[in-house]
Amino acid sequence: MIKEFREFIAKGNVLDLAIAVVMGAAFGKIVSSLVENIIMPIVGILLGGINLSSLSITVGKAVIQYGSFIQAVIDFLIISFAIFIFMKLANSIFRKKEQEEVVVEAPATEQYLKDIRDLLQKNVREDDRR
User: Fold this and answer.
1) For residue range 46-83, what is the model confidence (pLDDT) as tens digits?
2) How far lies 116's CA from each of 102, 127, 128, in Å?
3) In the Cβ-directed half-sphere of 61, how many Cα atoms lie within 13 Å?
4) Distance of CA 52 to CAs 47, 56, 73, Å?
5) Does the global pTM surpass 0.70?
6) Which helix (H) or strand (E) holds 64?
């Protein structure tokens, strides 16, 4: 069981997933910083100097911080858009590689089919001579 576990962990997929999680967390921090320190101040300036993250409503003793929620939504949208662009680029690169592989393989397949056709025609001719 330990041997199987080591093989499982040593597989590339597990390592790739671990790296992706770490990179995703770091990317999330970068985007959060971008939103908090650059985008939201600009939005605040455009809205007349309002700091959106500090917007809240007090109902009794409860404080509803809807400004933080707005900031989290903006974080999500930016991260989602960045991932969308990245995946779009990655998919186009993979499609190009697949198309190149297909183009390389097609002539060889066609040549094999032509060789088989020629051999069959040769066998038919030899059978007709007998």
Assistant:
1) 878 777 778 899 999 999 999 889 888 888 888 888 87
2) 21, 16, 18
3) 0
4) 9, 9, 12
5) no
6) strand 62-64
